[in-house]
Amino acid sequence: MALVVCKFGGTSVGGAERLRAVAQRLVDRKLAGDRVVAVVSAMGDVTDDLVALAQNITDDPAEREMDMLLATGEQVTISLLAMAIHAIGYKAISFTGPQVGIVTDSGHTKAKIQEVRADRVSTALDAGMIVIVAGFQGVTPDGQITTLGRGGSDTTAIAIAAGIGADVCEILTDVDGVYTADPRVVPAAHKLDVVSYEEMLEMAATGAKVLQLRAVEFARNHGVVIHCRSSFNDMPGTIVREVDDSMEQAIISGVTHDTSEAKVTIRDVPDRPGVAAIVFSYMADANVNVDMIVQNVSEEGMTDISFTTPKEDLARAKRAADEVVTELGARLWSVDESIAKVSLVGAGMKTHPGVAAKMFSTLADAGVNLDMISTSSIRVSCVIDGVHVERAVQALHTSFGLDSDSVTAEMSPASGKGA
Ligand code: ASP
Ligand code: MG
């Protein structure tokens, strides 16, 4: 008997038929002897539709009221799912985030969980219920409804799993697990069986969309084992957990890409101490997230500073860049919105030198120019021209031996028949 939290995303609960299938799946788990908590997202595109409704009223809605609005989406799903379980003859009860004590700070639309008082969940489980919890929402200590940021239901699920000491938190979604690359870009990509928290964090931070970065952070901090799998079949997916450093790990686990960032360059900045501090304090004050930074070699006491930032922060970055140019007497700023970032992630990199060199030569052979480079102990990322992103990802996937043919060739008994 296991204690499991199962999180279903919007696509998996997007309509009556799918809700009935989810209900059946939860009942099957219960019949198999597990204690089951479900965390659900809003149905289909409901959250997007709610955002659009607000935008029809005003382009500057109060964040508190946005949270009041957005939190309704998940409340629809929980009640309908409870009804679907009742309809097949089993006991279930739905709760909102506030009802189960997901206590957050007051950062409306991107609140952070401070505490989970999950006794209400445990009591309902003890009473033999399947417990259904609304994802994405919480409450401040003084009773304001908050939401956790887009995609936040993953974080709710992990937080509940941590709060009740679940054996596993299953994230059930419309893909089969974590892949070595986006299968829409690399048809030869294959599913990974196990990924360490640190690899998953790097993958989520560099473009893998299957799990929310914050949720993985929360899971690592609380030791929650994640099983990321399909809601449409029973196949095992990918386990995300602590992987002991003493175990042999793949040099490269995956190739990720991200086209959601833009590059900002401030030109002809005086090259003297304190200049970078000024540039990036302006950006920080404007709430601009900065990813990679490059400072060019200095010529005649002047230099260029480039950095990448999410496109959603770009309007603020441009305003801050105006101020920087005036303050520093720089020449001008420019923006390139057509960049892409490709990254290689793998825990085995720590003990295998030469990954970066091989990555650069692979990209060179593919005729892809490198614009910026950054590394961590288990990741190498390159910023390139966005038009080459698919070619770059495919070339790296092949050259690092990740194409599924090379894997099945070793493992499948049928491979000798030339099939
Ligand atoms: N419904 C929310 C969203 O679409 C939360 C979630 O799906 O995780 O962002
Ligand atoms: Mg959603």
Task: Note down, in words, how this protein is organized.
The chain is globular, with a radius of gyration of 24 Å. A hairpin with a 2-residue loop joins strand 19 and strand 20 (379-385). Mean pLDDT is 94; it is low at 408-419. The chain is of the alpha/beta class and 419 residues long. It has helices at residues 16-31, 46-57, 63-87, 119-126, 153-164, 197-205, 213-222, 275-285, 314-328, 355-365, 389-399, 404-411, and strands spanning 3-8, 35-40, 92-95, 102-104, 113-116, 130-134, 137-139, 145-147, 168-173, 194-196, 226-230, 238-241, 254-258, 261-270, 293-295, 302-310, 332-336, 339-345, 372-376, 379-385. Helix 1 (16-31) crosses helix 3 and helix 8 runs antiparallel to helix 9 (314-328). It has an eight-stranded mixed sheet with strand order 3-6-2-1-9-11-12-10, sandwiched between helices. A four-stranded antiparallel sheet has the order 13-18-20-19, sandwiched between helices. Helix content is 35%, strand content 25%. It folds into two domains: 3-174, Acetylglutamate kinase-like (Carbamate kinase), CATH 3.40.1160.10; 245-419, VC0802-like (2-Layer Sandwich), CATH 3.30.2130.10. Bound molecules: aspartic acid (ASP) and magnesium ion.
